[in-house]
Design a protein that fits this description.
- The longest helix has 19 residues.
- With 280 residues, the chain is α/β, with parallel strands linked by helices.
- The chain contains 4 helices and 21 strands.
């Protein structure tokens, strides 16, 4: 009986050790991340002499690093290229740090990624087009950075995406036509950028959309009537753009600022409510 108990404990200990083991490549990637982002100044540091399982914010299963949560931990510097060797990551949360530089095109290596949150940092440059290869991505949050350039033209390939939040950046250009293909999108926050062009009636494809914010951009043309078909939409802000024409009372009431637009001289004005809805 005693021998059996000893064997059982040994077996369980072996399993725990095995579960704790990650590949040398992934461990080295984590170590390089630590050094590249000034790990000695993190709020919650790693003791590199101890097992990876003791490292704050790292989650490993079956010998693979699947999650990294280092939000608000005073990471400073650029993400090293080795970071993208963590190919089994499903969740990355690095929000509220001081990460700078471009988001590398090597992000496409993270094929298992479902959540990527690097919001409220100091990222610059463009969103790499290679991010569109992350077919499992559901949540992409890069807001409150210094990202510029246009949204990737093939963003519609992210057909599992439910949250796209890139507000408070310097993104410009027109919305890619492919974006309307993401029918499962629930939250689309593009406000406080430099986006322009018009919205199309294809916006009706966003059947799951609950929150749409395009506030403070340079969108123009008419507000699509198709917005009224978005039955799940509960939050809307199209104000402080250059939309013209009329809108329905229903749409105006849904908008946080009652469709306050900016004219060519920079003066605010309200879009008119169409006559059909005034009589209702």
């Amino acid at each position: 009986m005693k021998v059996l108990v000893i064997f059982l404990y040994t077996f369980l200990f072996s399993l725990s050790v095995l579960a704790d083991t990650v590949s040398d490549k992934e461990k080295e990637a984590l170590i390089q991340l630590y050094h590249a982002t000034n790990g000695s100044q993190w709020k919650k540091k790693w003791d590199l002499s101890l097992s990876v399982s003791t490292w704050y914010g790292v989650r490993a299963e079956n010998g693979k690093v699947i999650a990294l949560d280092l939000a608000n931990n005073n990471l400073q510097g650029k993400l090293p290229e080795a970071f993208f060797d963590l190919v089994n990551l499903e969740t990355v949360n690095l929000e509220k740090n001081k990460i700078e530089g471009n988001l590398s095109s090597s992000v496409f290596n993270l094929k298992e990624l479902e959540t990527l949150n690097i919001s409220d940092n100091r990222l610059s440059g463009m969103i790499p087009s290679s991010i569109c290869q992350l077919s499992k991505l559901k949540d992409l949050e890069l807001f409150a950075n210094k990202i510029s350039g246009e949204l990737p033209s093939e963003i519609g390939k992210l057909n599992q995406l439910e949250i796209l939040a890139v507000f408070n950046n310097e993104i410009q250009g027109k919305l890619p036509v492919s974006i309307y293909k993401i029918s499962g999108l629930k939250v689309l926050l593009l406000n406080n950028n430099k986006l322009c062009g018009s919205l199309t009636e294809e916006i009706s494809n966003f059947t799951a959309l609950q929150n749409l914010s395009l506030f403070d951009n340079n969108f123009n043309g008419g507000v699509p009537k198709a917005i009224e078909k978005l039955v799940n939409l509960s939050e809307l802000n199209l104000s402080y753009n250059k939309f013209t024409g009329e809108v329905s009372k229903k749409t105006a009431l849904l908008d946080a600022l009652n469709m306050t637009m900016i004219d060519e001289n920079g003066n605010p004005f309200l879009l008119e409510i169409n006559q059909e809805n005034k009589l209702q």
